[in-house]
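Hey, I was hoping to borrow your eyes for a little while. I've been staring at a protein lately and its backbone has me curious. You're getting the sequence in one-letter code plus the fold written as tokens. Would you mind checking whether the tokens look sensible for this chain? Here's the protein in full, and shout if anything looks odd to you:
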Amino acid sequence: MRIKSEENKVERILYFVFFMIGMVMLIIATALAVHTMRFKGNARVVSAVITGIDRGTKVEFILDGQTHTVWISEYNSRLHVGDEVDVYVDRDNPGHVQMGGTLFLPVLVLCVIGAAFLSLGVGFLIVLLAKKSKRKKFMQTGRCVYAEVTGGELYTLYNVNGRCPYRLECCYTDEMTGIKYLYRSGNIWIDPHYFIGRQVAVWVNPADLSKYYVDVDSLQQEDSNIIDYR
């Protein structure tokens, strides 16, 4: 079955976006760190007095006998008018001033946020690869049985773009013993009512029937002639 937005690809796209955002932010952080280090190497450290605070910090300092008053975009709630702070002043442009205590703060913030996004992207990628590896192993070494889809449930602990996936419930009856085995599929983005009463392939570990993989992909491919635009 094909869905208009091909929702089965949403997760992979989302993971890729997390990964790319993390990479871009870390690249920007690296470039900013290099720029800041160059600025620091070419700057002079002088003592300044805070003379005003309003969406930024106004400082006054003396450099080469001249008094300079500069607004700095940085602001710290612990600073007050009259406090003395060390600032870095560009040797070639006295109007370019940065506070010493927060010189590398933007780099640190970008690194933390970027690392968080990158970790999520890598973590999701590892999960996807683990699922693929598990599926491949089951299909290579497992035994295939066919179970009847009996229903499904909404998996509310996970969502993508505000939507929660379903998980199919299915039942396999061993003809030799009459024992019934109940299985549950992984995430599926199609309403289970499409498949109730249908047979779905379940790959099981012959040595341990509690270890299995419900092949919902093959089930959906059987309905490739149906297009749902709802």
About this structure: The first helix runs from residue 10 to 41. The chain has a mean pLDDT of 83. The chain is about 35% helix and 35% strand. The CA atoms of residues 89 and 97 lie 5 Å apart.
